[in-house]
Amino acid sequence: MWKVLGIMLGALVGAALVAHIVSAQNAPMQHPPMQGGQMHGGQMPMPQGSMQHMQQRGAVPAGGPTLPGQDAFGAISEIAWLLEADPQTDWSKVDLERLRQHLIDMNEVVLRSEVKQSPIPGGLVMVVTGAGRTEQAIRAMVVPHAAELDQMPDWSARAELIPGGVRLTVTAKKPDDAKVVARLRGLSFIGLLTEGAHHQRHHLAMAKGEALAGHTH
Asked: Distance of CA 183 to CAs 4, 31, 157, 192, Å?
């Protein structure tokens, strides 16, 4: 009798263990929620509260995907969320098409322009050229960005129009500061284009229909 009870008890314990393993394997994987400002999958972080706002708009169901799938689309979506979340937004002035055209220009300059760089005393000269839309984009972006660079504490910058694009010259305001000069040359054209972190506020201003000094669109 004791032998039979032992066999039955062992069978019950084994069945319970198998059920626990199967349940664990089939349970949905839990991920920590993405907080505002954190990168997710290499994509641009959402602004604080954007997911809640998207769900309120019915754009994304709770627990649904969050990545926009395309960087320009994601940038425009972020601006749209900010505009909708701001009760002061004047929708009669909003112009998201203007922002879309600017993002096209950014794509042309970053991916399609030809850049020839040469060191000069205290800095770097960069000849940035392209054809068609790329040439227009270079002039639209690089000329106003040179003015932004020139206002920064480390750089002096000027842009000159040339056939096919722009000649951008950037030097250290202290040409004898070898560390600053090395940083400038290391950044090169594309790195200098990112300096100042003014693009984000310009994007929002464009979408709001506000005038931007020096910008041609």
From this structure: 81, 39, 15, 10
Per residue in 165-182, pLDDT (tens digit) is 999 999 999 999 999 999
For residue 119, give the nearest of 172, 159, 196, 165 by alpha carbon.
Answer: 172
- Residue 71 inside a domain? The answer is no
Asked if residue 158 belongs to a domain, the reply is yes
β-strand pairing of 165-172 with 155-162 = antiparallel
List 171's β-bridge partners, or say none: 123, 156
Q: What is the reported pLDDT for 62?
A: 67
The residue among 3 and 91 whose pLDDT is bigger is: 91
Distances (CA, A) of 75 to 44, 158, 168: 8, 29, 27
- Would you say how long the chain is, in residues? 217
Domain range spanning residue 188?
A: 114-196
Inside any domain, residue 169: yes
DSSP string, 92-125: TT--HHHHHHHHHHHHHHHHH-EEEEEEETTEEE
Q: For residues 67 and 74, what is the distance between their CA atoms, to the nearest angstrom?
A: 8
Total domains in the fold of the chain: 1
Residues 55/64, Cβ–Cβ less than 8 Å:
no
Classify residue 149: in a domain, yes or no. yes
* Confidence category of residue 187, pLDDT binned at 50, 70, 90: very high
Q: Is 201 exposed, middle or buried (0-12, 13-18, 19+ CB in 10 A)?
A: exposed
